């Protein structure tokens, strides 16, 4: 830039010197110098006018030809224009490749601008959400009017995918997941999970129906076994087999009841319970049941320094609390300590069960809430567990906006905790 300025100043000096010499020769050197300055300024103004007209016309074609500093500026603009054109072509080619690749995907992809307005979508999303070309710029919630989805779009804290019926077709099930980026921009991934949804529904119906049908024959078998054992007429060699049959019938009945409860939790709507459940009273009740199962083999302590009222389904909450407490009794050695504790803070309410049992290897913790998952299959059968307790706890928490956390080390016991959000709690001082 400095070199250009020096060069342009040199040109002006040459012109001024020439007209000054002419002025000295004619005796009008001052007029000659003024004439040189006027001609130079006129030339500069002409070059600027041409360049400004080229810019105003949208820089169509190459920059105007000139010499001097304006010629160099025109050449620079021309080079920048060519470089910009090449970069623009590269971006267009990249955009076409991205659009072609996303168009080939079976999953729908929707790009949202500010306020959740439709910016772009691939053909799969257009088919799944019934979008047309003239829908661009409209809010996505105009086409997905489910209140749950509206909250999902506007609440940045909501995580994970959302499963909903397809717009205009309840027989089709969609899974939508939002990824947010930039400033109020988002990408929505839409998948057709109808087949998986139907298979899952078939599994639930099968489990529920089979479990329900098993209750009647189990009740009959248990009744006859009780009659035979109570009559005292059974031959002595049969007494041991009858006791084992009764034990296994009781275990199978417990399994059927757990399956039916789990099926009901999975199929019913969330957040349906509106009962006001006193937490300390619930914890004391669960402690009594744990002490009954323990038969004084464990030291069970209750710590509930601050009572509260938990909004939800009383039966489901009792099931979740009791499953943790009874598991602690089953997997703790005789003489072990078990603590049932309720606490509250700014994050909500927390019910924890800490035992002094055998502990759990951390690699098993992520799978503990799976149905029938067992860390130690032999020990679980000996304890009489069904393998569904923590799965029931998980679904109860889902229906009460809660979370489960597990801390455990082999040989150091375990701590299972249920966490409930503040909006589910009411202090007893307020009631």
Automatic annotation (TrEMBL):
Record domain Histidine kinase: where: 209-424
First-level EC class: transferase
TM annotation in the entry: 12-43
Superkingdom of the source species: Bacteria
CDD domains with a match to the protein in the record: HisKA
Compartments where found: Cell membrane
Statement: the UniProt record of this protein carries the keyword rRNA-binding: no
Entry's EC annotation: 2.7.13.3
Gene3D superfamilies named in the record: 1.10.287.130, Histidine kinase-like ATPase, C-terminal domain, PAS domain
GO terms of molecular function: kinase activity
UniProt KW keywords: ATP-binding, Cell membrane, Kinase, Membrane, Nucleotide-binding, Phosphoprotein, Transferase, Transmembrane, Transmembrane helix, Transport, Two-component regulatory system
UniProt keyword Transmembrane, yes or no: yes
Region described as Disordered: 409-431
NCBIfam families linked: phoR_proteo
Name of this protein: histidine kinase
Source organism (scientific name): Microbulbifer flavimaris
Gene: phoR
